[in-house]
């Protein structure tokens, strides 16, 4: 190698080191908090990889040890196996808690239901059949500002997220924010702790963010329990057998949407972060289902 070439190599290495040093000095730590433009607290999730889903043998063990209800034990093998490596290649911010009634009311008050720019094509089609003046529909706890907004369809959640400048999480983004690089079973660890989640024996929603010891590795709260959460992905049987490693977004199409995290009154099997619920199409709503928002980091 000639001198000029050597100099170029040294220069390239120096620049490389400078870039790496610069980026590590700039790096935001996992779990850092910010307020987005709407004043909602979000936590930082750095790009990374984990094992998504559950192996068949581990799932059988959970079914037994957690006394899974029959309907859940029958469905889970179709949707959450096999465990497989997934990488999120973008840093992102995810809401620290579920979207509250107070936050959702701002969307409605700001004319969110009348502004087509926030609605997907399918969302607009759904909305065209609704009487907008009564949306969002009243719900058991919708008079309580700090409770999660439930009784909203996937389409309403999607439009709210767009209004906030974000979107619904993909299932992989949601599950990574809940499980972390160690692929924990629950947000707080691998063992069920009833006091860490608003699930067992509950008959309605709780104010968001009450179960601090149930925080995930990035500090996201109520990932297990309170309300179950809409994510972007269509539900697809066997999807994990062929899903891509990087940034999977679910099956191309479907009839039902994946929902994550279990709900008040469900059970420890359903409260696992790998579990996904399998019953509801995007125009369905009830008092068990809410959501949170993701914003990609710039
Ligand atoms: Ca939840």
User: Could you say how many structural domains there are in total?
Assistant: 1
CA(first)-CA(last) distance: 40 Å
Estimate the helix proportion, in percent. 25-40%
Q: Count of helices?
A: 7
Radius of gyration: 21 Å
Total beta strands: 10
* Percent range for β-strand residues: 5-15%
CATH topology name, in short, is: paralog of FGE (formylglycine-generating enzyme)
Strand order of the largest sheet: 1-2-5-10
Report the average pLDDT across residues. 93
Look at the helices and sheets and give the structural class.
alpha+beta
SSE run: HEEEHHEEHHHHEEEEE
Bound molecules: calcium ion
User: What is the CATH class designation?
Assistant: Alpha Beta
- Could you state the CATH homologous superfamily? paralog of FGE (formylglycine-generating enzyme)
CATH architecture group name: Alpha-Beta Complex
Major sheet? 4 strands, antiparallel
Low-confidence stretches: 1-24
What would you call the shape? globular
Keywords: Signal
GO molecular function: formylglycine-generating oxidase activity
Organism: Maritalea myrionectae
InterPro entries: CTDL_fold, Sulfatase_Mod_Factor_Kinase, SUMF_dom, SUMF_sf
What's the quick description here?
This protein is of the alpha+beta class and 298 residues long. The protein has helices at 3-26, 56-65, 70-80, 101-109, 121-127, 154-163, 171-179; strands spanning 33-35, 41-45, 48-52, 84-88, 92-95, 228-234, 257-260, 276-277, 289-290, 294-296. The chain has one domain (36-296): paralog of FGE (formylglycine-generating enzyme), CATH 3.90.1580.
């Amino acid at each position: 190698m000639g001198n000029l070439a050597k100099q170029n190599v040294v220069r390239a290495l120096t620049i490389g080191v400078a870039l790496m040093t610069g980026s590590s000095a700039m790096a935001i730590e996992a779990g850092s908090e910010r307020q987005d433009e709407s004043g909602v607290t979000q936590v930082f999730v750095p790009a990374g990889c984990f094992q998504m889903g559950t192996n068949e043998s581990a799932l059988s063990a959970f079914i037994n040890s957690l006394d899974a209800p029959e309907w859940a034990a029958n469905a889970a093998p179709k949707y959450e196996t096999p465990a497989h490596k997934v990488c999120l290649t973008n840093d992102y911010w995810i809401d620290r808690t579920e979207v509250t009634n107070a936050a959702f009311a701002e969307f409605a008050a700001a004319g969110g239901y009348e502004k087509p720019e926030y609605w997907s094509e399918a969302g607009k089609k759904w909305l065209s059949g609704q009487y907008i003046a009564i949306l969002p529909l009243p719900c058991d706890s919708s008079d309580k500002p700090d409770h999660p907004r439930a009784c909203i369809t996937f389409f309403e959640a999607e439009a709210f997220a767009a209004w906030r400048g974000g979107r619904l999480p993909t299932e992989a983004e949601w599950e990574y924010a809940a499980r972390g690089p160690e692929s924990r079973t629950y947000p707080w660890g691998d063992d069920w702790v009833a006091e860490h989640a608003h699930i067992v024996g509950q008959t309605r929603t709780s104010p968001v963010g009450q179960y601090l010891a149930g925080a995930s590795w990035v500090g996201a709260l109520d990932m297990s329990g309170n309300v179950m959460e809409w994510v972007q992905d269509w539900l697809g049987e066997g999807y994990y057998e062929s899903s891509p490693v990087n940034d999977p977004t679910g099956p191309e199409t479907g009839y039902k949407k994946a929902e994550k995290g279990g709900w008040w009154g469900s059970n420890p099997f359903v409260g696992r972060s790998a579990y996904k619920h399998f019953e509801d199409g995007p125009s369905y709503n009830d008092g068990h289902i809410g959501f949170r928002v993701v914003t990609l980091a710039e």
